[in-house]
Amino acid sequence: MKNYVYSFGGGTADGDGKMKEVLGGKGAGLAEMCRAGIPVPPGFTISTEVCNIYFENKNSVPSEINDQVLAALSKLEQQIGKKLGDPTNPLLVSVRSGAKFSMPGMMNTILNLGLNDVTTEGLAKLTGNPRFAYDSYRRFIQMFGEVALNIDMEKFDHIFDSRKHKAKVKLDTDLTAKDLQAIIADLKLVQKETKKPFPQDAHEQLAMSRDAVFRSWWNAKAVYYRKMEKIPDEIGTAANVQAMVFGNLGDTSATGVGFTRDPGSGEKVFYGEFLINAQGEDVVAGIRTPQPIDELEKVMPAAYRQLREITNTLEHHYRDMQDFEFTIEDNVLYMLQTRNGKRTGPAAVRVAVEMMEEGMIDKKEAVLRVAPQQLDQLLHPVFDSKSLKALQLLATGIAASPGAAVGRAAFSAEDAVHLVKHGPVILVRKETTPDDIHGMDVARGILTAVGGKSSHAAVVARGMGRPCVVGAGSISISERDKVFTTTVGGKKVTVKEGDWISLDGTTANVYSGKAQTNEPDPNSSYFGKLMKWADEFRGKFGVRANADIPRDAKAARLFGAEGIGLCRTEHMFFAEDRIPYMQAMILARDEKTRKKGLLKLLPMQRKDFAGLFEAMDGFPVVIRTLDPPLHEFLPKREDLMVDIARLPHAGAKMKKEMSEKYGIPVGKLKKHLPELLERVEELHEFNPMLGHRGCRLGITYPEITEMQARAIFEAAVQVAKKGVKVIPEVMIPLVGNAKELEHQRAIVERVAKEVLKDAGMEKLHYMIGTMIEIPRAAVTADKVAEYAEFFSFGTNDLTQTTMGLSRDDYTKFSKHYEDLKIFKADPFASIDQEGVGKVIEMAIQLGRKARPGIEIGICGEHGGDPSSVEFCYRVGMDYVSCSPYRVPIARLAAAQAAIADGHGETNRTA
Ligand code: ADP
Ligand code: MG
Ligand code: MG
Fold first, then answer.
1. What is the rounded distance in angstroms from the CA atom of residue 431 to the CA atom of residue 446?
2. Rounded distance, CA 801 to CA 779, Å?
3. Does the structure show a pLDDT above 60 at 745?
4. Which residues are marked as active site?
5. CA distance 342 to 345
6. Which residue from 410, 394, 487, 421 is spatially nearest to 445, judged by alpha carbons?
7. Whole-angstrom distance, CA of residue 404 vs CA of residue 381
8. Whose CA is nearest to atom 8 of ligand 1?
9. Where do runs of H (alpha helix) occur along 413-465?
10. CA 427 / ligand 1 centre spacing (Å)
């Protein structure tokens, strides 16, 4: 029969670190540590497969598998020399969840299993420490009751707190054995009320706990977390049964968690927290504020030294930053977990770069270590220090996750979800729990009053890359009244729900009001280095930016763009000083009037293009000729009708307003407004997406294409004369027919020749190509390529037209489609490779057959999405183009695609 249970302990293990799929990350880590001779309490892992079998088998574990569990248990009992349920010498175990991918705190774990009324007395005698025995028992009843019997935790917390109150103690460690006994009695009363009897039989406890751990796979928060992190639902969790070690034996015992480097900044410092006389969950739960790990050196120097050695070994063994858990039982150290630590974007970059410099990993690995999307966190604004000075500093906490966040205070996850509809929010909580996950997800930043660097809020925020300040002890929060108060300069300050606050996750400062932000520096040391290495692997595959104005073009260069992949000329016409000319041009009924309007626009366009050429200094600039929707430039039909009706009764003030609104002199309103309405109605389209779109405008009004071509080439000449290298690429927004391109190309070519000849610059290199965003253009790409020296896929519209799906309407049912997994992902964020991708591949093949060497790229939003970039690389495009801020993301994604494609050696000299 197949093996479902894997033992570990005593320097050996059935499994190993590579078996995450079967053992889960936690089980694999425990096995690997055992093999490396690291002190780990022995135990066994019930594989992730059993979790699925359990659900398929009507929520029970088949007896053959159960037999394997019992065999592993008796092996464990022999090894330890104690027996589960033995009244005088009981074995105690934990049952721990753990899936292939880490899901911190989302599933359940039960500690101290094996205790009952009898074994607890046995444990008390055996250890000579009744307080410890009762403390362990009451913890077990609480955890088991909550996890296995679904009893409301609040009921237990209430009992615990009121006994603390009665005993007049603040800390749980100050409760005596007698207090704890009383608590146990009260806890049992609650159990009785719920009609879910507390099982005294240890084997029954074990089976029930194992099953409860499997069921915790479907905890609401676990489901939400998987969705957020794109972890599949099918993989299931393992259940780890492990002999207990006790951090709550007294002052020579402790428990803690830590990281081998700072997971917020990436700095190489030993980082973590611990609590004396406590058990695992206490550190994360924020019951007592833990001490910084350095303090451990003073109280338990030998254990501290050993911990440093072991964690250092672990980091070298895994060649990555480790996130670890440990417990010290009476001065003896045990490791309980190790895994590659979650980290922020800035930390990911710094750790990768420094590990490469330390010789732990090579360049290739360093480039693969950072998820392209994580760079997003380094590309966002930081607070402007001057503007911060003007704000009131409310509090300083502990910096848990860096970045600047401005938003309105929300005091519960539900409120955050609600408030975010009206603008950015910052979630303010005393502490967060896994149940707050949806609120943390929508918040720009997170602030808590208690808890340390490894508290739930800190860990989760770092994983999400959300700015976070924890442990801001000087604020006092009333979650019920939805306010927090603090004292600033002796005065009490109150922040209510909806008030603006600014939170700096790097300095841990919290301000009232809205701070200004500044652009980040993409070439700062670690980031700059990583990007340089990435470019070495990326090779010839290019990354350009979509930019319409010189300012964006400059930002794009700073972020490493190698050209402009799309300049949308219609965006230039929206400027206030241009709209009237644009309208005049559109509304003109004859060519002469239209040309007059165009003549006014020519110098403006020329100036814009010159700015782009200058900013791109030697890199290509793709300029698309006008692609309407024309109606966006015109006044609304409804507005016009209302104003025509009001005009006869309008006073001077209203007339003046109308005159300004439509650009018509007051005296001519009466005559021109109805004319304007008539023309607007003429131009009205039932479906502009499928109407007079793309180059259809240039076909009906060739003088527009002509003017734009003139502006482009005159600008090129002007800038080239200054000694700047210019590479214009004129892009015709083809609809679906090669003939359209033939027509438009002839105009552009004629104008280009004229302008260049007049300037004596016939040798200037330029290209004429087309944008492909309609399936017909793609499936006739061989014909299209006869007139195109380049293709650029406009994947936004190509997705809309191929899928028969409008981007704006999709949001109404996107949730259904993605929940039901009809769509793998939002097709407007990640290219639908199966459908739209196929159309693209076909066009590339046809295009290259007709014109070998044709330049091919993509200019839709998808150009900055890592999986789409990988696709573009794989199908043989020459470049991707995306928004300036996503250029580094695309560069890294392309480098990773190149490495995956076998470019193990750097193939470009930097
Ligand atoms: P999570 O995945 O939520 O961290 P864990 O299974 O790691 O859950 O356990 C929760 C806490 O209990 C951790 O601090 C862990 O170190 C501690 N713990 C788990 N098993 C044992 C054990 N056998 N002995 C002592 N502490 C344990
Ligand atoms: Mg853990
Ligand atoms: Mg379009």
1. 10
2. 13
3. yes
4. 456, 859
5. 10
6. 410
7. 7
8. 109
9. 413-419, 437-442, 456-464
10. 28
CA distances 706 to 332, 572, 589, 733, 754, Å, are 83, 17, 18, 15, 11
Taking phi first (over 0 means left), then psi (-120 to 50 degrees means alpha), and beta for anything else, what does residue 668 get? alpha
Per the structure block, which two tokens stand in for 908?
């470009």
Name which of 429, 410, 419 is nearest 476 in CA terms. Answer: 429
In the reported structure, the alpha carbon of residue 763 is separated from the centroid of ligand 1 by a whole-number distance in angstroms of: 72
Distance between CA atoms of residues 590 and 2, nearest Å? 83
For β-strands 43-46 and 5-9, DSSP reports them as antiparallel
Span from the CA of 629 to the centroid of ligand 3 (angstroms): 9
Burial bucket for residue 885 (CB in 10 Å: 0-12, 13-18, 19+): buried
Q: What is the DSSP letter of 372?
A: G
Q: Indicate the range of 230-244, 625-639, 817-831 predicted with least confidence.
A: 625-639
Per residue in 195-247, pLDDT (tens digit) is: 778 899 999 999 999 999 999 999 999 999 998 888 999 999 999 999 999 99
Name which of 148-157, 225-234, 398-407, 579-588 the model is least confident about.
579-588
**Kind and range of the H or E run holding 9:** strand 5-9
Two structure tokens written together for 212 = 């409860």
Cα distances (Å, whole numbers) of residue 164 to 131, 167, 191: 15, 5, 20
What is the structure's pLDDT at 548?
Answer: 86
Nearest by Cα to 469 from 388, 400, 392, 404: 400
Helix (H, G, I), strand (E, B) or coil at 3: coil
Amino acid at 796: N
DSSP line for 40-109: ---EEEE-HHHHHHHHHTTS---HHHHHHHHHHHHHHHHHHT-EET-SSSEE-EEEEEEESS--TTTS-E
Question: Closest Cα to residue 7, out of 110, 79, 88, 82?
Answer: 79
What is the C-alpha to C-alpha distance for residues 796 and 228, in angstroms, rounded to an integer?
24
What is d(CA 368, CA 555) in angstroms, rounded to the nearest whole number? 26
Cα dihedral 277, 280, 281, 283 sign: positive
How far, in whole angstroms, is CA 5 from its chain's centroid? 35
User: Strands of 392-396's sheet, edge to edge?
Assistant: 392-396, 509-512, 500-504, 404-410, 425-429, 445-448, 468-470, 398-401
Q: Read off the pTM.
A: 0.83
- pLDDT (average), residues 753-775: 96
Return mean pLDDT, the chain: 92
Region 519-532 average pLDDT:
85
Reported as a pLDDT band with limits 50, 70 and 90, residue 905 is low
CA-based max dimension of the chain: 105
Best residue for ligand 1 mutational test, from 253, 274, 337, 454 (most atoms within 8 Å of Cβ)? 337
Q: What is the end-to-end Cα distance of the chain in Å, rounded?
A: 56
| 707 touches ligand 1 (CB under 6 Å) | no
Does the pLDDT at position 904 exceed 60?
no
**904 contact partners, CB below 8 Å, separation of at least 6:** 364
User: Hey, what are 456's tokens?
Assistant: 């739930």
Using a 6 Å cutoff on CB, does residue 280 contact ligand 1? yes
105 pocket-lining for ligand 1 (C-beta < 6 Å): yes
Would the CB of 542 count as within 6 Å of ligand 1?
no
What share of residues in the chain are helix, strand, coil (percent, to 5)? 50, 20, 30
Span 271-300, average pLDDT: 89
Q: Is 799 in the pocket of ligand 1 (CB under 6 A)?
A: no
Cα three-residue angle 290-292-294, rounded to 5 degrees: 145
